[in-house]
Design goal:
8 helices; kinase; Adenylate kinase isoenzyme 5; globular; alpha/beta; 5 strands; transferase; single chain
Amino acid sequence: CVCVISGGPGSGKSLQCERMEDRFGLRHVTLGDLLCAELQSHSDRGRHLQDVLERGEPLPEDTLLELLCEAVASSVRQGKGVVISGFPRDLRRVEEYEAKVGEPSAVLLLSCSADTMSSRLQSRGRSGSTSQPALDRDDALHRRAESFCSDSQAVASHYEGKRLLHTIDAERSPDEVFAQICQAMETF
């Protein structure tokens, strides 16, 4: 089982992925975690990525996709299912991923409004200290949430056309969201 969980910043992906790990025994995979592990491995690829980061350049998308494909293949070989969060963000990445690994078993879209996402992010931000003025920060958070909503439409349509998309109402409480995820998981 390879499951993709998608949702904007503040939609609850991390919490729900933790619950899916516990309940279904899936390995939670994020590009950020894979990148950190590669950087710490001191491999040739890790050193190359470190150089790119130190130069302030964008990371090569092909290498990130390679890391993800390797992690998924490794888990599947071990007989362990995977939940990938935060990927893919655009249709080109979807096509590249599917060409290398195949279609996921299912795609769960945690759907909530840009207002809900930015409000959740704002409440998270209040607990930490920041030098950015609150209004600027809140405006930036709202723009990030709106950006996800518009960018994710093509990806959602792609998976909906393949009957792999399960839209989850993430406006609800975390327990209600997880109940919807469990219901979706029963269908595949």
